[in-house]
């Protein structure tokens, strides 16, 4: 076995040197970067938390770096201006994603929206989700669903009693149920009221496992000759996890077909009813494509939003003056007689600054999602080879001291009039803070994500005072990040809520 592996790697290495993607033979140089090791290249440089290691490397080699991971060319953007070169000036060329084991084993072999190659099928899937889920009209039509689910969360917290609550877990149930009602016409878990629910715990752990696996730099993706060996066991774990997700999604789709189409007004009914010539949307979707789309929404759309709110509350607990100022704004605009609604959000200026500042310091996907160069091109005088993977270190960009004063400080005021970035938003226009990415493949669910994150944060801050469990003081709160494609807290936030509104405000009208 050892001899076989040895010769496979050596052969692959020499074939690679022979047919290497033009970088070294090109007139322009490749961007600078750390010297790669033989065969594995710069994989060892990535360390346990790649966005941290890549940020440190960028300080040494500059905001546009070239790495060789195994046999793959990888370029890393670590400043706002370099990111805008890739995602604005050269966006069309970087609108596909590189092949990877996650797309193959977890996302139904690229049949989903997140990993679909840029082209007609991606356009069709993106259009379907834009029209039925994310358009202004679709979002407004379903705003009562989000408000009801956030109301159920507040009701559960108001009756939490003396036991501490795991805030991230409850927020996750809230986002999954809100999305579940929109996507498949029903809640997926329990009553959403804050009691423990084994199925919900299991689902969250599946999503987190998916993000952890998808975040692993899998050797087989970068050294194809070694793919079959699955050295880190990643592909094996992905296949097992895929079976669990598939069973979960198949049950939902079959149940929906059985319970009679036309009864529900939800996205799954619409997807099942599309025909080949359906209203210009292009094609009938197969059951696999439908399951892949549901999988995207339930994974890309839940943990990202709920963990952002968990980070926001953790920051506010560490900054009591900012928390008090936000509560004051909420009391002024909403009063103490009812919960926040989505219609209040445009009137909550300080809340918006707090949300932006949370996204700046804790972007849910710190390395965004990878893109790929469809053709070779020139950026800032460097050669970017065809097929190179692009990583945008959005985490490093939004902590860049060249752009932000005291970048590690949580200071929402920087986004207010008179602050250093009064007109900057997080929607992909201002490259110094791009938590949702930018360009053609910007997050499809950005508007929904922003509304959910804002509504949940506002409701938690307005509805409750908070203390940390086990007598922990805010200064001692662990703010470490766990490893994965998404930015989880290493230690879940355990807290005690204390009601601050009139008792009737918490009486959620359960649908
Ligand atoms: C806090 C909330 C969220 C954040 C920070 C976030 C972040 C991101 C990022 C960085 C990307 C990659 C963009 C790029 O390549 O430039 C992405 C893609 C995507 N997101 Fe989100 N996301 C969030 C919420 C959601 C929600 C609520 C949904 C759906 C329910 C969603 C669905 C998607 C999909 C489908 C894609 C792939 C788009 C494509 O490839 O065309 N996301 N998201």
From TrEMBL:
Q: Which domain of life is it from?
A: Eukaryota
Its principal location?
Answer: endoplasmic reticulum
Cite the entry's keywords alphabetically.
Answer: Flavonoid biosynthesis, Heme, Iron, Membrane, Metal-binding, Monooxygenase, NADP, Oxidoreductase, Transmembrane, Transmembrane helix
The positions annotated for binding heme are: 443
The membrane topology term of the UniProt record is: Single-pass type III membrane protein
Q: What EC number(s) does this enzyme carry?
A: 1.14.14.82
Record's subcellular location: Endoplasmic reticulum membrane
Q: Which reaction does it catalyse?
A: a 3'-unsubstituted flavone + reduced [NADPH--hemoprotein reductase] + O2 = a 3'-hydroxyflavone + oxidized [NADPH--hemoprotein reductase] + H2O + H(+)
Q: In which pathway does it act?
A: Secondary metabolite biosynthesis; flavonoid biosynthesis
Q: Name one Pfam family in it.
A: p450
- Annotated SUPFAM superfamilies: Cytochrome P450
Its required cofactor(s), as named, are: heme
What job does this protein perform? Catalyzes the 3'-hydroxylation of the flavonoid B-ring to the 3',4'-hydroxylated state. Convert naringenin to eriodictyol and dihydrokaempferol to dihydroquercetin.
The family classification in the record reads: Belongs to the cytochrome P450 family.
Which PANTHER family does this one have? CYTOCHROME P450 98A9, FLAVONOID 3'-MONOOXYGENASE
How is this protein named in the record?
Answer: Flavonoid 3'-monooxygenase
Species of origin reads Malus domestica
């Amino acid at each position: 076995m050892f001899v076989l592996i040895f010769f496979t790697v050596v052969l692959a290495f020499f074939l690679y040197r022979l047919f290497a993607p033009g970088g070294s033979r090109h007139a322009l140089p490749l961007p600078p970067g750390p010297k790669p090791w033989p065969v594995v290249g710069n994989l060892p440089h990535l360390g346990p938390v790649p966005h941290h290691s890549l940020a440190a490397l960028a300080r040494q080699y500059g905001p546009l770096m070239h790495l060789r991971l195994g046999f793959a060319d990888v370029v890393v953007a670590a400043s706002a201006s370099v990111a805008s070169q890739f995602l604005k000036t050269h966006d069309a060329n970087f609108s596909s994603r590189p092949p990877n084991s996650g797309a193959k084993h977890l996302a139904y072999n690229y049949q989903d929206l997140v990993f679909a190659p840029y082209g007609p099928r991606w356009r069709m899937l993106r259009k379907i989700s834009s029209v039925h889920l994310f358009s202004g009209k679709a979002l407004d039509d379903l705003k009562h669903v989000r408000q009801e689910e956030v109301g159920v969360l507040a009701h559960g917290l108001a009756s939490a009693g003396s036991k501490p609550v795991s805030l991230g877990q409850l927020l996750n149930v809230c986002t999954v149920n809100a999305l579940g009602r929109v996507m498949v016409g029903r809640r997926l878990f329990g009553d959403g009221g804050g009691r423990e629910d084994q199925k919900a715990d299991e689902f969250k752990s599946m999503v987190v496992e998916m993000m952890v696996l998808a975040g692993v730099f899998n050797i087989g993706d970068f050294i194809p000759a070694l793919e079959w060996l699955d050295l880190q066991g990643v592909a094996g774990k992905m296949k097992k996890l895929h079976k669990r997700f598939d069973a979960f999604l198949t049950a939902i789709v079959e149940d929906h077909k059985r319970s009679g189409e036309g009864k529900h007004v939800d996205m799954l009914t619409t997807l099942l009813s599309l025909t080949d010539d359906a209203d210009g949307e292009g094609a009938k979707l197969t059951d696999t494509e439908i399951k892949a789309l549901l999988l995207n929404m339930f994974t890309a759309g839940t943990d990202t939003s709920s963990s952002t709110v968990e980070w926001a509350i953790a920051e506010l607990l560490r900054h009591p003056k900012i928390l008090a100022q936000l509560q004051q704004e909420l009391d002024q605009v909403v009063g103490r007689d009812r919960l926040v609604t989505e219609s209040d959000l445009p009137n909550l200026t300080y809340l918006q600054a707090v949300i932006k500042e949370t996204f700046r310091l804790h972007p849910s996907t710190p390395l965004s999602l990878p893109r790929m160069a469809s053709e070779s091109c020139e950026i800032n005088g460097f050669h970017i080879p065809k097929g190179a993977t692009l990583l945008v270190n959005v985490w490093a960009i939004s902590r860049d001291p060249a752009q932000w004063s005291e970048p590690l400080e949580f200071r929402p005021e920087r986004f207010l009039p008179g602050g250093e970035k009064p007109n900057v938003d997080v929607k992909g226009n201002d490259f110094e803070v791009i938590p949702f990415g930018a360009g053609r493949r910007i997050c499809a669910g950005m508007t929904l994500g922003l509304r959910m994150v804002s509504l949940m944060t506002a409701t938690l801050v307005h509805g409750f005072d908070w203390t940390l469990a086990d007598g922990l003081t805010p200064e001692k709160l662990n703010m470490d990040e766990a490893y994965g494609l998404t930015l989880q807290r290493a230690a879940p936030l355990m807290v005690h809520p204390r009601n601050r509104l009139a008792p009737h405000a918490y009486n959620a009208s359960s649908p």
